[in-house]
Amino acid sequence: MTGTGIRRVWFVATDPDRLGGVSSFITVLGRALAGRGYEIRLLGVEQPRGNYPLIRPADWQQTVLFPTQAERDADPELDAHAYGLERFAAVKADWGPEDLIICCHVWPMEIMIAGGLNPRDRTGPVIIGQYHGSFHAAESGRDLRRIKKIFKDVDQFCCLTEADTVSYRRAGLNNVIAMPNPVPLNDARDGDRDKVVVSLGRYSPEKSLDHLIKAWRTVTERHPDWRLRLYGAGPKEPLLRELIDRLGLGDVVTLDGIAADVGGVLARSSLHAMSSQTEGLPISIIEAAMAGVPTVTYDSSPGIRAIVRDGATGRIVPKNDVDALAAAFGELIEDADLRTRLGSAARAEAEQYAPEPIADRWEDLMRTALR
Questions:
Q1: pLDDT of 286 above 70
Q2: Where in the chain is the domain with CATH 3.40.50.2000?
Q3: What's the burial of 69, exposed, middle or buried (CB within 10 Å: 0-12/13-18/19+)?
Q4: Distance from CA of residue 82 to its chain's centroid?
Q5: CB–CB of 270/293 below 8 Å?
Q6: pLDDT one-digit tens code per residue, 190-225
Q7: Residue 47 · residue 69 · CB < 8 Å
Q8: Looking at domain 8-182+354-369, does it have CATH number 3.20.20.60?
Q9: Where are the alpha helices (H) located in 93-196, listed in sequence order?
């Protein structure tokens, strides 16, 4: 018995295998909770896209609601939504008060409600809603309206920072708390590091990786022996390659694909970079901090400011200011002692995001939310 009254933990996501912060959250928290005796299950809406399978233990069962492409091809008249609701009905029939549902995205919660899940049913599972972006991102699009509608009756709604908690309460959502994501520990320690600035993230529009490449055109003029390495995958890869070639940076900027060993990459890197237009609580910044690597980042969300203190654990520059980005890189490239001080301070502050302390907080939440 787990001691919380919960036996099974279900992670529900649009696609649990999608490369990014949500899949990392599922993997890290799932492993921590499994180590404490919980049975872990995964529920996805869409079939996995791309070759980025979530690395998980073999006993984690995954159910996907919508049909595969082969099933759609075999039956052109197949109603994918109706198919998904029918499959969800079979899953929901097995849920009870010993189940905890962690819904990581908005759309899956809408699907589950359409399939008959009633958050007000006190005989059913404990339901925790999440939003992994910032409040600003939710408010800027149409997610905030949807969040307020579908998560208002769940047992708890979790956002990533205290600042966002205040914003959600002002918007009328009163069951909100801040719950940061856990980040896996790594064994990287200070030592000889390469003259490398590394980025870890999807090659997608919101990451604005073209800004890093453009900034590097300035950096390399004074520091031709330094390299920018962009790890990830995604739809912007062809355009990023074209930009690198057009700016003549092929010898100093590389697209390195998915990092199989993030800890090993960070152990060899001197700086971590982020140029996103919006973020929640960026796991890659915390991973870098745990490896003693300071981050240079745009000021793009409260989550950034929660984990990077400008001049103390890293550098924050105004969003979309490519010149400021290049200047911050130059400052830290030229001052190895400052890099070391920032990296050491970042590591000390990142310890609060280790899996076990965050798992403790989740178990406290289970006890208070238990029906």
A1: yes
A2: 8-182+354-369, 196-352
A3: exposed
A4: 30
A5: yes
A6: 567 999 999 999 999 999 999 999 999 999 999 999
A7: yes
A8: no
A9: 106-114, 135-140, 143-150, 162-170
